[in-house]
Specification:
By secondary structure, this protein is of the alpha/beta class. It has 14 helices and 13 strands.
C-alpha cells in the first residue's frame, strides 16, 4: 500500500510540472510590440506638421537696377509674399550690371542651399544655370529662353531646372508702331548691346517686319556704356528713325542715348516702356510688374505644391499697350494717335 501511494505522489508531481511548462504565456515582448508599431503612424502624422513649419529660402539675383527690372522683382516678391507670408525669406541681390557679380551672387545662393533662385535678366539666368542643375531656377525679364540658355529646338519647356517668364512683346507689332508713327521714314537704325544675346535675337527677328514696310535696316552695336554715345551719334547721322529692343545695357544708358538723339532730332521707338521713358517716343510694351508677379506664382507652385520646374511652360505677358513719351514727342513735334497711352 505504501509503495502504491509513493508511486501516485510521484506521478502527480510529474503532471504538475508538465502543466506549468505547457501553460506558459506567449513571450513577454509580444505585448510590448504593439506600442512600438503604433508609434510609426504617430511619426507620419507629425511629418505634414513639420512641412507646414518650413520656411523657404529664395535668392533673387537682379542684373542691374533700373525701372523695368525693379518692377519685375517687386512683382515677384509681392506674389510670393502674398502666397507664403512669413513662410518665405527672400534675399534680393543686385549685380550692378556685372555678369561676374551675378555668378558670385548665385554661387552664394547655391552654397546656402536656397530652395529656389529667381534670376532677373539674361546674364543672371545664365549665371544661375551654370551654378546649379538641382535648385529650381525661375527667370524673368528674359526675351527668349532658347537663345539665353543655348537650347536647340526650344518649344516652350526647357527640360532642365529652369523656367520663368518672358518680356518679349510682339516684334511685328513693334514694327507696325514704328511705321504707323513714321510712314515716310526710309531708313531705321537698330541700336543694341553686342554682349546681349537676346538683343541680337530681336534684331534678327524684327528686321523682316521692318523691311516689309519698305524700310532699309541698319544695325549698330555698342559694347558697354563707354561707347554708347558715339555709336548713337553715328546711328542718328545715318537714319531717319531708331529702334532699340529690350536691352538691359541700353536701358541703363537711356539718359546718355537721349542726350544724343533728342538734340539730333531723331526719334526712337523702344521695345519696352521704361526704356521709352528714358530716351524714346513710343513703344508697344508689357508690364514688368505683371511678369514678375506671374513668376512669383510659379515659384509658389514649385515650393508649396511640388511642381516640376523642368515641365513648366515659359509664360508671356497677357497684354500689350501702345505707349508714348509725352515730353519727347512734344520736343520732336510728334502727334500720336488716340489709342496711345502716355507713360506715367
Amino acid at each position: 500500500m505504501k509503495k502504491i501511494l509513493a508511486i501516485l505522489c510521484a506521478l502527480s508531481m510529474i503532471f504538475a510540472l508538465c502543466a506549468c511548462g505547457g501553460s506558459a504565456p506567449a513571450p513577454a515582448p509580444a505585448p510590448e510590440a504593439a506600442p512600438e508599431a503604433a508609434s510609426e503612424p504617430a511619426a507620419e502624422e507629425a511629418a505634414p506638421e513639420a512641412a507646414a513649419d518650413k520656411v523657404f529660402n529664395v535668392g533673387v539675383c537682379q542684373l542691374v537696377q533700373h525701372p523695368a527690372l525693379d518692377k519685375a522683382t517687386e512683382g515677384f516678391v509681392d506674389a510670393l509674399t502674398e502666397k507664403l507670408g512669413d513662410k518665405v525669406k527672400i534675399n534680393v541681390q543686385n549685380a550692378s550690371g556685372d555678369s561676374a557679380t551675378c555668378a558670385t551672387i548665385v554661387g552664394t545662393f547655391v552654397s546656402d542651399e536656397a530652395d529656389l533662385i529667381m534670376a532677373n535678366a539674361t546674364p543672371a539666368l545664365q549665371a544661375a544655370q551654370a551654378a546649379t542643375n538641382k535648385i529650381p531656377i525661375l527667370g524673368t525679364s528674359i526675351t527668349e529662353y532658347g537663345v539665353a540658355l543655348g537650347l536647340d529646338n526650344f518649344a516652350g519647356k526647357t527640360g532642365i531646372n529652369v523656367s520663368g517668364t518672358s518680356d518679349l512683346a510682339p516684334l511685328d507689332g513693334q514694327a507696325d508702331v514704328l511705321h504707323e508713327l513714321f510712314p515716310d521714314a526710309a531708313t531705321v537704325g537698330i541700336l543694341y548691346c553686342s554682349a546681349e544675346a537676346n538683343s541680337k535675337y530681336q534684331v534678327e527677328a524684327i528686321t523682316p517686319f521692318l523691311e516689309a514696310h519698305g524700310l532699309k535696316v541698319n544695325a549698330y552695336t555698342f559694347a558697354d556704356s563707354n561707347d554708347v554715345a558715339a555709336v548713337t551719334a553715328t546711328a542718328c547721322d545715318e537714319n531717319d528713325v531708331l529702334y532699340i529692343p529690350t536691352d538691359n545695357t541700353a536701358a541703363n544708358c537711356a539718359e546718355a542715348i537721349n542726350n544724343v538723339a533728342l538734340p539730333a532730332g531723331v526719334p526712337i521707338v523702344c521695345g519696352e516702356e521704361n526704356l521709352c521713358a528714358g530716351c524714346g517716343v513710343a513703344t508697344l510694351s508689357i508690364s514688368y510688374y505683371d511678369i514678375g508677379f506671374a513668376t512669383g506664382l510659379m515659384a509658389f507652385e514649385i515650393l508649396a505644391n511640388g511642381a516640376d520646374v523642368s515641365t513648366m511652360e515659359i509664360q508671356y505677358a497677357p497684354q500689350f499697350t501702345k505707349e508714348f513719351n509725352a515730353a519727347n514727342c512734344e520736343a520732336l513735334n510728334i502727334t500720336v494717335p488716340e489709342d496711345y497711352v502716355a507713360i506715367g
